[in-house]
Amino acid sequence: MRPKQFMSRGRISAESRMTSKCTISRTSTPIFNEATGEYDETSTLIYSGICKIKIGGNQASQIEAAGQILIAQDSTLSLPVLLSGAVREDDVATITENDLDAALVGLLFRVKAGHSQTNATARRLPVEMVS
């Protein structure tokens, strides 16, 4: 089997496990609105389609200075490689559909970094939940 055929099969398999749908948008620089006297933010749709979200295990750590306990979760958003090349750091993903777990719908995640790999079957982006 040639490498392209092998990668195609791997990508089809990875995408078959992407049972959620999401949109990913990018906020632009706020523009001053003279009529309201406020700044308006606009966003651009970067991606809309299938995805898979994995919210990792919890690790609690004490912050000494503030006397607070923060919960850190390693989360990954997987997207089809060929359709998601424009996604970058600080873009925001919204889970719009998940037939297997409705509690995921509406969750927001900020992309922490990009992902590129020679033989990737999915674009796996590290994300953090936006509260």
What does this structure look like?
- By secondary structure, the chain is mostly beta strands.
- The chain has one domain: Thrombin, subunit H (Beta Barrel).
- The strands form two sheets. A six-stranded antiparallel β-barrel has the order 1-4-5-8-7-6. Strands 2-3 form a two-stranded antiparallel ribbon.
- Strand 2 and strand 3 form a beta hairpin.
Q: How would the blueprint of this fold be written?
A:
Layout: H1 3-16, E1 20-27, E2 31-33, E3 38-40, E4 43-63, E5 68-79, E6 92-98, E7 108-111, E8 123-130
Antiparallel strand pairs: 1-4, 1-6, 2-3, 4-5, 5-8, 6-7, 7-8
Summarize the structure.
This protein is mostly beta strands and 131 residues long. It has 1 helix and 8 strands; from the N terminus they run αββββββββ.
> What is the ordering of alpha helices and beta strands?
HEEEEEEEE
Uncertain segments: none
The CATH class name reads Mainly Beta
By secondary-structure content and strand pairing, the structural class works out as mainly beta
Distance between the termini: 46 Å
Instruction: Give the strand order, joined by hyphens, for the main sheet.
Output: 1-4-5-8-7-6
The overall pLDDT average reads: 87
Q: Write down the overall geometry.
A: globular
Beta percentage is over 45%
CATH homology superfamily name: Bacteriophage SPP1 head-tail adaptor protein
Which radius of gyration do the C-alpha atoms yield?
A: 18 Å
Secondary structure: helix percent: 10-25%
Count of distinct structural domains: 1
Biggest sheet overview: 6 strands, antiparallel, barrel
Question: Would you identify the CATH architecture?
Answer: Beta Barrel
The CATH topology is given as Thrombin, subunit H
What is the count of DSSP helices, taking H or I runs of 4+ residues?
1
Query: How many β-strand stretches?
Result: 8
